[in-house]
Design a protein that fits this description.
Distance between the termini: 36 Å
Largest sheet: 4 strands, mixed
Strand order of the largest sheet: 2-1-3-4
Shape: globular
Strand content: 5-15%
Number of helices: 7
Helix content: 25-40%
Number of domains: 1
Structural class: alpha+beta
Length: 143
């Protein structure tokens, strides 16, 4: 039994479940304790394996891809959808939630322009207070 447990992964059979290829990428600020806890919660949900999670406070600059720099990624949530389009704010949450069956069912309603505008306005209010909780990049915090 121990020999099989330590066997090389190339010996996997077709019966073993393979990890899903990420459909979208979410860029979040892991130095914000509230943000990190929210993302950590989403990461435990069904469908989270369809998302590539990038902590902008700790990643290499190249991991942010094109059209996004570290400061932008730290300022608010960003996501790249399945087509590679970069979105931020409420639209980024919708891209993420679409992959999570717990919330995915509601995303068609949230994609309406007026709803996105409302959610973005609420998110911007949160962003004004977020610096009160954010730790400087590189400083550790308890999750």
């Amino acid at each position: 039994m121990t020999a099989m447990k330590n066997a090389p992964t190339q010996m996997n059979t077709h019966h073993e479940k393979q990890a899903a290829k990420p459909i979208c990428t979410v860029y979040f600020d892991g130095a914000c304790p509230l943000c990190a806890k929210e993302i950590a919660t989403y990461q435990t949900w069904r469908g989270a394996d369809k998302i590539e999670w990038i902590d902008a406070s700790r990643c290499e600059e190249i991991e942010l891809g094109t059209q996004l720099n570290r400061q932008q990624a730290l300022n608010k949530l960003h996501a790249r959808d399945e087509t590679g389009q970069l979105v931020s704010g409420a639209a980024a949450f919708i891209v993420m939630w679409r992959q999570l069956p717990t919330l995915g069912w509601i995303t068609p309603l949230l994609e309406r322009r007026w709803v996105i505008t409302l959610l973005d306005n609420l998110y911007h209010v949160f962003l004004k207070f977020r610096p009160l909780w954010r730790k400087p990049v590189g400083e550790k915090f308890d999750r």
